[in-house]
Amino acid sequence: MQTVPLDGAVKIYIDLKQIRDGGLLEVLAGPKAAEDPDYRRFADQIGFDYRTDLDAVAASFVHGDFYAAARGHFDWKRLSDYARAQQGSCINRMCSLPSDQPYRKISFYMLSSEVLAIAISDSPQGAAMVATPSAKSVIAVPAAALWISAPGTDFKDLKNLPAGTQSFLTPLASAREASFSVQAAGPANSGPPGSTFEIRMDVACVSPDAAAALGHVFSSTTDVLRRLLVGQRAAPKRTDLTAVLVSGRFETHESSVTGFWPIDRRVIESLASGQMK
Questions:
Q1: CA separation, residue 24 to residues 17, 30, 43, 272 (Å)
Q2: DSSP characters for the chain?
Q3: pLDDT tens-digit profile of 10-27?
């Protein structure tokens, strides 16, 4: 994560190895037979299968540009041959080829023997923005299967998210930065290993007063939803998204707010399959 552009970016870290070892990769990715034919042809040509060859990805989205550092097993010769076959070129170990978007280029090079630097931008040398940091970075990524962090302003327009989550996330628009991570729940949680996970929210606010106000909003919204369900005598199933939302608990410390939501594996399966609205 320290190698990609960070200022004002939406940042994502995905630990594919952890997801794969936890048995969730097939759930999230779907069966191999259902993969897009164009992707399969691409994967076959470069000798790469993300299901087995990719271990982790750190990515950032900045002003419409995409940057990533992918750790895994790559065949550079086949990658460079593919770039040339797609009307691209490779100069000084940097490859560039046209993307399917007008005036945009895909560029990549090997940052190290196991890390591929990638960019999609208007520059054929965009991947050069992914590089070993010259100074110590202050960003900290938790040991989670999935982590995403974004400036508060990116939470202003959430119309494409499920309706039940919008009231919870819209208040984050006033924050400096908000991050969410997903990891396996601790031994104190019920259920066999791999059946229960936890979503953690970490919000950096502009002041202690702002943090207290935001924590109150989250607690109040959760309490309203709980009372609504009690009034309707509708106890949510553990596999419902509503059960996740009403289980939230929140802590405020100085200028930060932390939230925790246990989430059943079956909820993740429903979300991944598109069956849950």
A1: 10, 10, 21, 10
A2: -TTS--TT-EEEEEEHHHHHHTT-HHHHH--GGGS-HHHHHHHHHHT--HHHHEEEEEEEEETTEEEEEEEE---HHHHHHHHHHTT-EEETTEEEEE-SSTT-EEEEEESSSSEEEEEEES-TTGGGGS---SS-------S-SEEEEEEGGGGS--TTS-HHHHHHHGGGGGSSEEEEEEEEPPTTSSSSTTSEEEEEEEEE-SSHHHHHHHHHHHHHHHHHHHHHHHHHT-PPPTTSHHHHHHT-EEEEETTEEEEEEEEEHHHHHHHHHT---
A3: 999 999 988 888 777 766
More confident residue, 2 or 28: 2
Extract the tokens encoding 28: 């999230």
Backbone angles phi, psi at 5, to 5 degrees: -60, 135
Q: How far apart are CA 72 and CA 56, in angstroms?
A: 7
pLDDT at 165 over 90: no
Q: 110 and 73 in contact (C-beta within 8 Å)?
A: no
Q: What are phi and psi of 76, to 5 degrees?
A: -60, -40
- Predicted confidence (pLDDT) per residue in 48-98, tens digit: 888 889 999 999 999 999 999 999 999 999 999 999 999 999 999 999 999
Kindly indicate the confidence band of residue 44, based on its pLDDT and cuts at 50, 70 and 90: confident
- DSSP lists the bridge partners of residue 12 as 59, 148
Confidence (pLDDT) at 83:
93
